[in-house]
């Protein structure tokens, strides 16, 4: 049985045996974990079979954020009611602090490894998962690429140590699959679990959430990096080991390793069309973005079609976005993944788009649209006026 399946079974057992205050901790955490538990059948690709990936195209899955439980000592007293409160508070702190689901960065990290190890071409933006069924995901991604990376956060939460109620640990478990979009078969699958055992040096609840939850964000980012390595080595052991050993030094803090993401609209599903598309859509001069700095900002740029005139994006502090042009408007959600901003609109006519902010050394920053491969000058707007975007005004408080 896979580690993740074994852990789900253990949690189910613990929830039935839970007694007393420490038992309440197990009950609350178990209920959250069990709700998100998924089956994992570990499988890897041997060196010979991995050659079938060489030169192929791969995309990735994007999902809605799963519930996050923030279980404090006080909530343990109230058992099931406390569990509900823990999830409510957890989801609130995730939204208010714009904390991204690590799954998307893990997906992109695995894409980098496949790009390096098998010379695969990464096609973006990702596709939304219609369900957890591999066949349905393959069907959705088939027109986009020949393979799809599906990373799902099974559980993310924070909970105090049962023997140390004033200090906390962050828990994280994820599952990754590489799916052949033509056959719908799962080619490789693995799980990653990050559960600190010792409370030595563990933070308090307030320390985790101070400065817009900066420590919680760093902890989840660290878990994500560990999972990228462990998942890659579990799914394609020999190829990934050689890739990691031959990889250049890690990127400096605050920068993201470059990855060439080809637009799906130009790439299609065949290797020939993917190879013909521009490999430079993830530029090295992309500005690293922070979701918290976008909140309450409004961006504006000229639409490519004269009848629409412009596109205006108003970012809200809870992760929502309001968008409009001369003829229509919509709402949606936005997320930031290192240097990539992705927006999913509720209106089908608007769809989904991902952007990079580029600094080419000129006075004004540029905005790069992945869906249409277009780069434009954009503006930061207030109620009074709009001015060209610069590093100063896209990051300064509104």
Structure description:
The chain has 398 residues and is α+β, with helices and mostly antiparallel strands. The chain has two domains: 3-248, no CATH class; 285-395, Lipocalin, CATH 2.40.128. It contains 13 helices and 17 strands. The strands form two sheets. Strands 1, 2, 3, 4, 5, 6, 7 and 8 form an eight-stranded mixed beta sheet that branches. Strands 9-10-11-12-13-14-15-16 form an eight-stranded antiparallel β-barrel. The chain is globular and about 55 Å long. Residues 10-35, 76-80, 243-258 and 266-281 have low confidence and may be disordered.
Q: Count of helices? A: 13
- Described by the principal axes of the CA atoms, the overall outline is globular
Please report the distance between the alpha carbons of the first and last residues. Answer: 52 Å
Helix percentage range:
25-40%
Counting copies of identical and different chains, the oligomeric state is single chain
Protein structure class: alpha+beta
Q: What would you report as the Rg, rounded to the nearest angstrom?
A: 22 Å
The overall strand count is 17
What value does the average pLDDT take? 77
In total, the number of domains comes to 2
Strand and helix order: HHHEEHHHEEHEEEHHEHHHEEEEEEEEEH
Largest sheet: 8 strands, mixed
Strand content: 25-35%
Residue windows where pLDDT falls under 50 for at least 5 positions: 10-35, 76-80, 243-258, 266-281
């Amino acid at each position: 049985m896979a580690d993740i399946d074994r852990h789900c079974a253990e949690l189910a057992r613990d929830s039935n045996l839970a007694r007393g205050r420490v038992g309440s901790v197990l009950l609350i955490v178990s209920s959250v974990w069990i709700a998100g538990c998924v089956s994992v059948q570990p499988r890897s690709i041997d060196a010979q079979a991995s050659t079938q990936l060489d030169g192929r195209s791969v995309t990735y899955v994007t999902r809605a954020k799963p519930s996050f439980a923030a279980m404090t000592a006080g909530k343990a007293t109230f058992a099931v009611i406390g569990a509900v409160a823990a999830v409510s508070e957890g989801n609130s702190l995730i939204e208010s602090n714009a904390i991204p689901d690590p799954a998307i960065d893990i997906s992109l990290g695995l894409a980098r490894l496949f790009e390096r190890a098998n010379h695969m071409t990464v096609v973006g933006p990702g596709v939304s998962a219609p369900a957890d069924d591999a066949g349905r995901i393959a069907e959705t991604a088939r027109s986009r690429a020949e393979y799809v990376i599906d990373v799902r956060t099974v559980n993310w939460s924070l909970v105090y140590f049962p023997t140390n109620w004033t200090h906390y640990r962050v828990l994280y478990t994820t599952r990754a699959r590489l799916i052949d979009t033509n056959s719908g078969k799962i080619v490789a699958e693995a799980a990653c679990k990050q559960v600190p055992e010792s409370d030595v040096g563990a933070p308090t609840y307030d320390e985790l959430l101070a400065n817009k939850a900066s420590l919680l964000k760093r902890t989840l980012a660290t878990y994500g990096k560990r999972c990228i390595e462990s998942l890659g080595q579990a799914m394609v052991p020999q190829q990934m080991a050689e890739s990691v050993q031959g990889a250049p030094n890690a990127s400096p803090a605050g920068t993201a390793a470059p990855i060439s993401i080809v637009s799906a609209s130009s790439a299609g599903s065949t290797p020939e069309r993917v190879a013909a598309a521009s490999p430079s859509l993830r530029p090295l001069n992309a500005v690293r973005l922070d979701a918290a700095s976008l909140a309450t900002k409004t961006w504006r740029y000229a639409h490519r079609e004269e009848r629409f005139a412009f596109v205006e994006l108003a970012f809200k502090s809870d992760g929502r976005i309001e968008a409009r042009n001369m003829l229509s408007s919509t709402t949606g959600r936005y997320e930031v993944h290192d240097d990539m901003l992705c927006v999913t609109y509720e209106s089908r006519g608007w769809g989904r788009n991902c952007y990079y902010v580029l600094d080419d050394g000129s006075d004004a920053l540029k905005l790069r649209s992945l869906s249409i491969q277009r780069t434009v000058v954009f503006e930061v707007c207030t109620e009074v006026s709009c001015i060209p975007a610069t590093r100063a005004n896209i990051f300064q408080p509104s």
